[in-house]
Amino acid sequence: SRVFKDGSQRAISVPTDCNAKRGERVTFTTQLPKRIEEKTWLCFRSSQQDMCIYVGSELRQSYSTKDLRLFGKNSISAFVFVEISSEDAGMPIMVVTVSDSAYSGVMNDVYIGDKSAIWQHFIKEYGASAIIAILVLILGIISIIFSVVLRKFFKKRVIIEYLAWGIVLVSVWLLSESRLRQLILPNMTVIASMAFLMIMLMPFPFAIYINNVQNGRYQKWYVLVCAAATVDFLVCTILQMTNTREFLDTMIYMVAVIILLVLVTAGTLWKDFKKGYIKEYSAVAVGLAGLMLAAVGEIVSAFNRVYQMPGVVICTGMIFLLIMTAIKTGQDIMSIAREKQKAVFEKESQTRFLTHMSHEIRTPLNVVIGMNTMILKEGKDKKIQEYAQKIDGASKLLLNLISDLLDFSKLEQGNMELEETSYYLASFINDEALSLKSKAEEKGLEVRVQADEKLPSVLQGDIVRIKQCVSHLIQNAVNYTHEGHITFSVQGNWNDREELYLVISVADTGEGIRKEDMERLFESFTKLEENKSQFVAGNGLGLSIIKTLITKMGGTIKVNSVW
After folding, report:
1. What's the whole-model pTM score?
2. Cα–Cα distance for residue pair 231/240, rounded to 1 Å
3. CA proximity to 150, closest of 162, 158, 139, 159
């Protein structure tokens, strides 16, 4: 019976909904059986309600999460157990509920019997959906790990990763909504809030997933879905945290965002079907159609209470979509592998071509340089000498260009090997200093050489490549400095393993480099400030090559500049 404030009663049958007002104190009463065995328990299900249970005039059990929750007005739905004994036989029992939600005045089924037997009944009733949710969660986590491995291997994201995150959110939501959730996590307030948070986050991975499947053709629509989901998440969370509105009361807006995602997905699938694009992802399209049918079946079953295993149908749909996506991912991986193999073949062909051409060009070019050198030595006519000097400069520039292209190709292929030998540091510094002076004197630049006297006389390394790197930096300094000085410095740093690392720097008083150009400085085929450097010989490969070489030798290269 339901007991009213004036003491009157009205007979009811449970489960029931008295349609009480929010916050109204609702009282139910009945009489215990005339025969009760020892260790008998009563089990009530609270639905977003605070609950007090009296046997006779004695308060036997109360349930409330008021002291546990950080925000929210109502206690989380849970099974509440009350132990009764043979002495309680035939006594009246009264249940008082209070809720500031749509569940005010709801009384669910009441169970009586052995406590473990009641739990066994619940596990039998609701365990299948919880187990399936856990299995789907594990499957989602495995898919995420698998997709991360694929991304590292192929250097490209695979669409299954976004779907895997969506599956994880769905499975966590199902676990949070499971009637066995108080066995999974003792703090019910956390797990209940998690259920609503998962619902609000679900649209994001699915929108990103479908947008990637469709190659971004309808990106603006999925951006709209994500924007709506963001607003929904922020507003609903703020309302809950400020105790203005419960998550349960704003559930309609969460569902509206999911419906928007479903409509956008259905609309874009139909458009792609008409345009023929759906052939690109036919397996995924079948999977999405299966998931939508599963979702409809889940909703119909929930409203009609056809079965007591919520989430099983939707999980089946998710697994089906995952299988279809795995098929699509397999097709993508094969396509990527083919493209990678093609790219490797093309690079190998390019390297062979460049190697062959460099040898073919160098032979006549060396003849030109040799004959031109003879002209420079023996020629008396000033005009001829002037022409010969221009030929000499152009020939050497062409020779350097061929060498840079060949080095660049070898580095890209990973075919360049370092040849470490012992070398005399003083000889290296002297050679580079003389090279710098000869180049700088032509432009009237002052040269400053600084070297730490405590450096060892003999070092280990690939001296040919070290010289190549330093020579390029020196040439750059000369090219872009019109007045002032150039400083060539060689210092050393010892590490904990008593290994010496050379610190070589080339500083100049040139115009400098803009801050926004710093990141592009070491890119291949890039020349900064084209309007200023158009008269400077070069192909934009040098700095890219020396950075790769220095990194290969275990070092680093840095740039500081004042603009």
Report:
1. 0.61
2. 14
3. 158
